[in-house]
Amino acid sequence: MSQSVQIPLFQGIDPADLERLLGCLGAARRRYRKGDVILAEGSPTTWVGVVLAGRVLMEKSDIFGGNTLLGSAGPGAVFAEAYACLPEEPLQISVTAAEETTVLFLQVGKVLAACPRQCPFHTALIRNLLAISAQKNLQLSRRILHTQSKSIRGRLLSYFSEQVKAAGGSRFTIPYTRQQLADYLGVDRSALSATLSKMQQEGLIRYRRNEFEVVQPGKMP
Questions:
Q1: Residue limits of the Cyclic nucleotide-binding domain (predicted)?
Q2: Domain covering 149-219 assigned CATH 3.50.50.60 in the classification
């Protein structure tokens, strides 16, 4: 599993030590098809998931059939770590495979517990997990900022502004379909599509599927 040392959770851990570490953590690899439920809302978990390939979606549903997309995770990303640390707390979200996906699961109890073998790289793993959790809190804060505007246009401008900064240029690719982007921003899909079309007609943006270009970045917030 040499490619996994590039995963942020395993940063600073030598490839030669990784297999031994995974054995200590009771690691298990699972594969999922598009649409498969990886973790179900309402169920507890004691496992931390690491995406090795593919992409997963974190979603929240309501009793009326509504769905809110909270985020997505691609190769190298970690998910469900907060719930795994609170095994009595049922998941308030569901995690599904957005495409064919491979996930590595780690038993969180073994991640946080003192290693009986006194592995020096176990400390690095815990430090990396804390850093990842902090980063995810920032991502959640960004989503809250994106949805503060009452208008769809305002929410799109906020989201696109972040993407431009992250890409370091005016062109970027988002990980969402139109419906998923609408769910993420908490708006109606048809209204979102209409707003995107209007912004393109105004010469503010160009887009094709999930590839975007901000033509007038000076108008970004």
A1: 9-106
A2: no
Q: Which helix (H) or strand (E) holds 6?
A: none
Q: Which residues contact 105 (CB under 8 A, 6 or more apart)?
A: 27, 28, 29, 30, 47, 48, 49, 50
List Cβ neighbours of 9 (8 Å cut-off, separation of 6 or more): 50, 76, 78, 125, 128, 129, 132
- The reported pTM is 0.75
Pick the CATH number of 2-145 from 3.90.650.10, 3.20.20.80, 3.40.50.880, 2.60.120.10: 2.60.120.10
Q: Mean pLDDT in each 10-residue stretch from start to end of the chain (221 residues)?
A: 67 84 88 97 94 95 80 93 90 95 93 70 87 88 91 96 92 93 94 96 93 79 54
What residue ranges do the domains of the chain occupy?
A: 2-145, 149-219
pLDDT tens digits for 105-117? 999 888 887 666 6
Distance (Å, whole) CA 157 – CA 192: 12
Q: Are 187 and 178 contacting, i.e. CB atoms less than 8 angstroms apart?
A: no
